[in-house]
Amino acid sequence: MLDHIVMIQLWSSCILVWLKVRNCALLPQMKAGWLILFLLICFGWLVRGSGAYNISRPSSVHIGAIFTFDSTIGRVAKIAIEEAVKDVNSDPHILAGTELNLTSKNSNCSGFIGMAEALQFMETDVIAIIGPQSSVAAHMLSFVTNEMQVPLLSFAATDPTLASLEFPFFLRTTQSDLYQMQAVAELVVHYGWREVVAIYIDDDYGRNGVSALDDALAQMRCKISYKVEMSPRSRATRGEVMDLLVKIALVESRVLVLHVNPDVGSVVFQVAQYLGMMSSGFVWIATDWLTSVLDSSSPLPNEVMNSMQGVLTLRHHTPNSDIKKAFISKWSKLSNGVGLNAYGLYAYDSVWLLAHAVDGFLNHGGVISFSNVSKLLSARGSGLNLEAMSIFDGGALLLNSLLNVNFTGVTGPMKFNADRSLIYPSYDIINVIGNGYRQVGYWSNYSGLSVVPPETLYTMKPNRSSENQHLHSVIWPGETATLPRGWVFPNNGKQLRIGVPRRVSYLDFVSQVPGTDTFKGFCIDVFTAAVSLLPYPVPYKYVPFGDGLKNPSYTDLVTLITTGDLDGAVGDIAIVTNRTRIVDFTQPYAASGLVVVAPFKKSNTGAWAFLRPFSLPMWGVTACFFFIIGMVVWILEHRTNDEFRGPPKKQLITVIWFSLSTLFFAHKENTVSTLGRVVLIIWLFVVLIINSSYTASLTSILTVQQLTSPFKGIESLRASNAPIGYQVGSFAEHYLTVELNISHSRLQALGSPEAYADALKKGPEKGGVAAIVDERPYIELFLSTQCTFRIVGQEFTKSGWGFAFPRDSPLAVDLSSSILKLSENGELQRIHDKWLTKNTCSLDNAEIESDRLHLKSFWGLFLICALACVVALTVYFSKIIHQFRQLSPAESDQNGDGHGIPRPRRLQKLISIIDEKKEPKQGRNKRIRTDNPPFSDNSEDGSRNAKKQTQIIIDA
């Protein structure tokens, strides 16, 4: 773009010269040849100027580097940056003769010193700065580089808050901790842990990194349960570290994430080993600072390595390539024993990135020029020499060139995405073992955890499913391969506060021992047995809840867990939706659900008892089918069977009689057609089933004591206006009013089994209730001593009882496993029998149901019978129509008029065919015997006598 601008400027100069010549008085005397010569000279000058511009490149450009020379990262970065400058200057394919002139300054781990040195760079025409390695220094230097428009390329500042919007001239040439903390969070979820403890340096690097970890864990329903900040000083004393780790030892989480600098990190591990916190049960996850130490300072002293056995850590993943292998082989000659870490590789590539950008900047007409800062001119004479600082005029163009660079370096592809972050963020997952370490897998933003290198997965479709997340086995602290549980009860003498309801009814489930703080009952025994199966001790104490005068609200009890007043709740607590939203429940240890209990009475048989076996629809459908079957058989037999012929009145009586007589298998009319017999056989089978069912039901009604109730379940109770009782404190009240929309005015709170019985006996007329809705365990215990009430209908909710704990509590998971063990070994049933098995009533305890037979039990039989009728009628009428079509052409030919039969006559003919008598086919064994000739003279008397004398003898 700039070369076009210069061309335009040169052309403008030519035009100005031309205008001056035009205004000269000598122009009229100039001949055309001189004018052409003048234009050629201007054009040559233009071309010469343009060519001179394109080839005018500076012999050198000044770049700066700011980092801490004497640090784990700085020692490696210093060698890598200097070597990269040498390689760039010796490469003829880049910069075309322009050399990089590097000036390095030591920030000495100080943001202030780094800023002062950056200001000094502004006095020496530096076009870009590489560094710093510290996130704290990067924040301060970014303010300076923004004002001076000098790109800042940091190979080690991983603070996620160094955003491009706030610091547009800051460019991170490594991966942000935003991705590293995402990898740590996925590690936590992969191993099934829910809470972690974060230990971090209290500066921009530590705080913002842990904040990113907190956000990543929250997305996966995990959290940081405890945060411990450490002094940002380069060295922390053992006493300070010991005080912090002692506090950590008192919390329950055993998954520790260490996000500090290398100097502090080694002290933390040594103190943790001294305190026994590097033993079995602990999990240590260190961020990439540890791999920087392992790679650059290996081998470490034995006491240091022994203090970090079993630690998981991360390292920036750099793909294996020929460029990387060549650089690593050359490193041993350059390093003087200093190991190469990932930040050294990024520092090397940062120089090459800048070289490619400067080359593109110059190739596109970029001019390296500086101008004074107008804002600082007023400070002239202050003694700070601020007027010597200058702004890089081409800083924006160089920054744009940096963002557009795309090449492959020793760390892999160096290319920025739309967020100005390097593409393909990925990490190696390292397990420290013995005198070294072992790689157990990879993490990439593309496919998550894997044992396959990320560059291989980039060629496939992304798959973040849990089944696709794999890592090799890990040796955890304590030299064990068993996955740590990740938490223990804190060893601080604190007991769990377990809330227990103070019930005043149904004390067999849970009740307080008078004069003590202990409780007993079915629920308490289950909890005690489950806790005894845990592989660790659980100190707890019971906290009574309620005034002891009435049953407390269980929802209020559960709510106290969310406020921190209680650590759990034990009792007959139903697992319902509104409670599961705020707490976690264990596996249900008792089945539960709402049922309806109502009074019942013995029903007398009465004079009309014979009608009770069938419901009204059943009676109606059965009667209709009797008439339908009679009509179908009459249609099928009418043409061939004399018993189904005759006057209409006789035929109607025959149909009714035939259909009703089949009920007792007493029909005397024979069927001669095949279709009629098929229909009749199927119908007789249906009648047999109906007769048998009716007989069995009527026998039961007349001989067995029947129990009746005005309600048949929750729907009939809901449809009525009768008052309903419920237990005080039960969730039944909420369910009836909110879920079933039953008016609260119909509900009565009852507090004891005696109140249940009294209210049911009174009934609605005397101020009692028509029915009671409560959970099945209570009702079963109630009915064991009350024999005049029964459960009516089915259980209309399905739930269970469980123990409540705070959200994401690991104790809820472990107790669930214990409850399953109690169920499998029979201990749960033994506890149930101990508390809840009572002497039941002698009467049948079965639920009251309607004793009638309903249509739904027989619709299959009726469907089969109806299909048989439809098929038979279809076949029959098909034959009739076929016969009618054969007869119609013959009669049309007899008429001789060439026209068909008129429509009225066709209908009459069809009806006559249906009604005509058709002789049945005679079998081989049939013969005709007559006493007189079948025909006489043409007299009617002779014919009539002949018919009377005709006798058909059918041999068997």
From TrEMBL:
<feature type="transmembrane region" description="Helical">
    <location>
        <begin position="678"/>
        <end position="702"/>
    </location>
</feature>
<comment type="similarity">
    <text>Belongs to the glutamate-gated ion channel (TC 1.A.10.1) family.</text>
</comment>
<keyword id="KW-0472">Membrane</keyword>
<feature type="transmembrane region" description="Helical">
    <location>
        <begin position="858"/>
        <end position="877"/>
    </location>
</feature>
<feature type="transmembrane region" description="Helical">
    <location>
        <begin position="616"/>
        <end position="636"/>
    </location>
</feature>
<feature type="region of interest" description="Disordered">
    <location>
        <begin position="914"/>
        <end position="956"/>
    </location>
</feature>
<dbReference type="GO" id="GO:0016020">
    <property type="term" value="C:membrane"/>
</dbReference>
<dbReference type="GO" id="GO:1901701">
    <property type="term" value="P:cellular response to oxygen-containing compound"/>
</dbReference>
<dbReference type="InterPro" id="IPR019594">
    <property type="entry name" value="Glu/Gly-bd"/>
</dbReference>
<dbReference type="InterPro" id="IPR001828">
    <property type="entry name" value="ANF_lig-bd_rcpt"/>
</dbReference>
<keyword id="KW-0407">Ion channel</keyword>
<dbReference type="InterPro" id="IPR017103">
    <property type="entry name" value="Iontropic_Glu_rcpt_pln"/>
</dbReference>
<feature type="domain" description="Ionotropic glutamate receptor C-terminal">
    <location>
        <begin position="497"/>
        <end position="838"/>
    </location>
</feature>
<protein>
    <recommendedName>
        <fullName>Glutamate receptor</fullName>
    </recommendedName>
</protein>
<keyword id="KW-1071">Ligand-gated ion channel</keyword>
<dbReference type="GO" id="GO:0015276">
    <property type="term" value="F:ligand-gated monoatomic ion channel activity"/>
</dbReference>
<dbReference type="GO" id="GO:0009611">
    <property type="term" value="P:response to wounding"/>
</dbReference>
<dbReference type="Pfam" id="PF10613">
    <property type="entry name" value="Lig_chan-Glu_bd"/>
</dbReference>
<dbReference type="InterPro" id="IPR028082">
    <property type="entry name" value="Peripla_BP_I"/>
</dbReference>
<feature type="transmembrane region" description="Helical">
    <location>
        <begin position="34"/>
        <end position="53"/>
    </location>
</feature>
<dbReference type="InterPro" id="IPR001320">
    <property type="entry name" value="Iontro_rcpt_C"/>
</dbReference>
<keyword id="KW-0813">Transport</keyword>
<dbReference type="Pfam" id="PF00060">
    <property type="entry name" value="Lig_chan"/>
</dbReference>
<comment type="function">
    <text>Glutamate-gated receptor that probably acts as non-selective cation channel.</text>
</comment>
<dbReference type="GO" id="GO:0007165">
    <property type="term" value="P:signal transduction"/>
</dbReference>
<keyword id="KW-0325">Glycoprotein</keyword>
<keyword id="KW-0406">Ion transport</keyword>
<dbReference type="InterPro" id="IPR044440">
    <property type="entry name" value="GABAb_receptor_plant_PBP1"/>
</dbReference>
<keyword id="KW-0812">Transmembrane</keyword>
<keyword id="KW-0675">Receptor</keyword>
<dbReference type="Pfam" id="PF01094">
    <property type="entry name" value="ANF_receptor"/>
</dbReference>
<feature type="disulfide bond">
    <location>
        <begin position="787"/>
        <end position="841"/>
    </location>
</feature>
<keyword id="KW-1015">Disulfide bond</keyword>
<dbReference type="InterPro" id="IPR015683">
    <property type="entry name" value="Ionotropic_Glu_rcpt"/>
</dbReference>
<keyword id="KW-1133">Transmembrane helix</keyword>
<keyword id="KW-0732">Signal</keyword>
